[in-house]
Amino acid sequence: MQMSNEEYAALVRARMPQSPFWPDVGKAFVIGGLICCLGQGFTELYKALGATAEDAGAWCSVTMVFLGALSTGLGFYDDLARHGGAGTLVPITGFANAVASPALEFKTEGMVAGLAAKIFIIAGPVITFGILASAIYGVILLCI
User: Fold this and answer.
1) Average pLDDT over the chain, rounded to whole?
2) DSSP state of 123
3) Is residue 95 part of a domain?
4) What digits encode the pLDDT tens for the residues 30-70?
5) Quick check: is 73 in a domain?
6) Helices 76-84 and 21-48: crossing angle, nearest 10°?
7) Among 11, 60, 84, 105, which is most exposed with the fewest C-beta within 10 angstroms?
8) DSSP assignment, residue 7?
9) Number of structural domains the chain divides into
């Protein structure tokens, strides 16, 4: 059966399921906004506990990365992303999910060949080493 490009495109459009664009946009907006509100809440909490604005922002980032990785490990973040779509990719928790997901996927291959090697698949070594270095620098600064 010979088809022109236009006929093929029309066939694909006719058979392709329609995405509920506006409901998806709304859910992404709400879920992403709630994640950002949670982060702002942590910033305000840390300020109320006596941290400077700069330190509160840093502690908020650390907290949100931790919560993103933890919720990925517990399987909660995937469920949230299924409903929130792109709203879960933009905040810092999406970054934590991108780092933790490949590591969890390959953990059955062992600590070195699985977890340690596959953690680099999505986020990349520069980001991973940046996190590790910032954690080490933070501990050093805490001890000084």
Assistant:
1) 85
2) S
3) yes
4) 999 999 999 999 999 999 999 999 999 999 999 999 999 89
5) yes
6) 130
7) 11
8) H
9) 1
Residue 108 lies in a domain: yes
128 is written with which tokens? Answer: 């991973």
123 in a structural domain: yes
**Are 91 and 39 in contact, with CB atoms under 8 Å apart?**
yes
Instruction: Please report the pLDDT score of residue 26 as a whole number.
Output: 94
Domain range for 111 is 59-144
- In angstroms, rounded to a whole number, what is the distance separating the alpha carbons of residues 111 and 130? 20
- Residue 28 pLDDT class (50, 70, 90 cuts): very high
Residue 140, helix vs strand vs coil: helix
Of 120, 118, 138, which Cα lies nearest the Cα of 129? 120
Alpha-carbon distance values, 134 to 57, 58, 128, 139, 141 (Å): 14, 11, 10, 9, 10
